[in-house]
Amino acid sequence: MTDEPRRLFILDTNVLMHDPMALFNFEEHDIFLPMTVLEELDAGKKGMSEVSRNVRETNRLIDQIISNASFEEIKNGLSLENIHPNSGMESLHLGKLFFETEPMVAQLPAHLPSHKADNHILQTGLALKEQYPQRNVTLVTKDINMRIKSSAVGLHSEDYYNDRVLEDADLLYTGWEILPEDFFETHGKNMKSWQEGESTFYELEVDHDCDWYPNQALISANDSGFSALVREIRDGKAILEYMHDFNSDNSAVWGINARNTEQNIAMNYLMDPEIDFVSILGVAGTGKTLLTLAAALEQTLDENLYNEIIMTRATIPVGEDIGFLPGTEEEKMTPWMGALMDNLEVLTESDGYTDWEKESTQQLLSKRIKIKSMNFMRGRTFQKKFIILDEAQNLTPKQMKTLVTRAGEGTKVVCLGNISQIDSPYLTETTTGLTYIVDRFKCWKHSAHITLQQGERSRLAEFASDNL
């Protein structure tokens, strides 16, 4: 190993389990893999979970890097440039990959047993720090406790930042914008309007640096009640469509009305057949699931736009086997789908109907609503389906891609989630697949996003949320 000013990154096992391509994401700097990491990768390669698949992909990449290399070459570091998937497409300047080819010994505090895998990685890092004092040696890990222990023993550590979509979750696209009070005074002079069927459109001039996105909702700050969706922006002009009002009783969707402006925006997205993908973020009680189910039932049973509703969610642990519960796939998933079932009961309750009529309705719905496990969706294609992905904040970007690409012709996908309630141990608000897909889809004209903030559950829930 040469004495170069380039940084030396020690990768923890969880980084490679999360992202096999992490080997190529440190630019010109060098990477070091302790033997303990290789052993943990070997132990985690079996199984059908997303983590196991990532481990196997990592092992294949390392095998490709190390193949045909002599021990001396491995000891001196192997170049990552020749093996990078895009090495033939662009000029890359990557560092080298080093392995622990000889014991790395350093003094650990007496209260840290050296036989533990994490402590052995810390010991290796301290030994490298002593061996190469002129280099910046950094341990990269997604384990918070590992970073704390690393700091406690004097080894610099960092989180794995490359999978971050944004620097801060507060910068995430919300899907709507409040127009200034003088909006019509500044834009009304050259504004054009026309009717197409039941829709009203407006054309107005905008600056070339206008930061509106397709299907973004624009809400007037004054009492005019104007609300519109951005349908198109080109050549310095924007085309807006007046938003349909789902607050009125005659515009109820499966008996459900929007209770506030945010819910009305969401319902416009859910009921628009030209929008193939909808993502809805919001805390508990904002109506994400209820609105989505109402729109799904309306368009599946009444309008026949879709022939089936598919409900699924990430089971915890994410992507693992759903267990040895008795029954079919749907019966096994039932414990995870409590929120969906609760909202379905609200939507199917009707006064004045007999028990026989209610039971008939339930049987009809059971034939058109299917509960699926995410574990069995790989390789499938769903045609003319209304797919609801609940608790999507617990999905990685790769899992999100796997699920959304299942959509066939005529299928609508709706992702629901709350990025402040992430249960997966290695995901954060800025790295979850839900944040990833919101950011990547915001410029596509057939997608829409809305962040719900106003709760509509009950006065008890609202008081508890504000005061507990």
UniProtKB/TrEMBL annotation:
Coiled-coil intervals: none
SMART domains per UniProt: PINc (SM00670)
* Residue span(s) of domain PIN: 7-148
InterPro entries, from UniProt?
Answer: P-loop_NTPase, PhoH, PhoH2-like, PIN-like_dom_sf, PIN_dom
According to its UniProt entry, this protein's organism is Thiomicrorhabdus marina
Protein family membership: In the N-terminal section; belongs to the PINc/VapC protein family. Belongs to the PhoH family.
Q: Which UniProt keywords apply?
A: ATP-binding, Nucleotide-binding
The name on file for this protein is PhoH family protein
The answer on whether this UniProt entry bears the keyword ATP-binding reads yes
